[in-house]
Amino acid sequence: MRTVGVEEELLLVDGESGEPKALSQAVLAMAAHDRPRDDAFEPELHRQQLEFATSPQEEMSALAQEILRWREAAAQHAKTLGGAIAALATSPLPVNPTLGNGPRYQWLEEQFGLTTQEQLTCGCHVHVCVDSDEEGVAVLNRIRPWLAVLLALSANSPFWQGKDTDYHSYRNRVWGRWPSAGPVELFDDAAAYHEQTRAMVATGALLDKGMVYFDARLSDTYPTVEVRISDVCLEPSGTLLIALLVRGLVETAAREWRAGTAPVPHSVALLRLASWRAARSGLAEDLVHPLRMEPTPAATVVEALFDHVRPALEDTGDLDMARALLDRLLRDGNGAAFQRSVYERGGSLREVVEECVRRTARGV
Q: What Gene3D superfamilies does this protein map onto (predicted)?
């Protein structure tokens, strides 16, 4: 069974005002003191955000427990410092982000200017193990059409600098300002993939391979495919669903590769349009069908994804769990829908943040 690991970026906010608060250094210091052998928490580009990474897990119940464990630990540390954590992909309230320390972040600010300053966004990255780079690239080629559906499911960033953006995932639009972000073309093999990333770094526009911000890529650290398109999900159950679907996509793609099934040859231009539609509409309107590339009701597209990965989910014993989590999400809506419902009831973005803080560490 393929192992799965999750990286989540969380927003640090003031416990009273709900405004983003630069607490990451203090939280990291507290975490290191309390659990010196645990290194789950990491700094991020801005001090108003915090990242944690789970260990690789085969069993999804264990992954769910670890996601909740680190969210709860982050919440406790932040509370001690007068703050809170919110699994929000962008801040609903206005913010002037504070850049983190270190030469890497300084280089980014010098090279990319306002783009760096504006990147206070929180995503969810899912790592699934692969047997080799060849298998990994074969997987990347075959999951491309389905990634936009993951974005629609996870969309959790309707507000930006105090305004409703009319998007469900405005984070995706902000993240796309990096020159290396987004979908990519098909690769003939692993050698072609590595040559492409090498050439990108050689332009001098990227600091290193860590800045190859493809929607899905080979990890430069682990023997995994890393799917990076999703917003951070409001509740742990949403994160678990995305992890289930990503493992299903990776396994399905690997099986197709071994069976000699060619990848769908969509152009990057079409994939970009599909991602834009997912970011704009979430689950509220039509999406672009991953295979036909035409407007299709969101529920139909989501079911197409589920049917695509069904055999893989059955083989890992995860089908019932994935079905239940997906049905719940389709019934209740994604994080963007929840945020807007709170705002429409009370008319306060501060209340939106408060409600999201409450939901961030809910049980699965």
A: 3.30.590.20
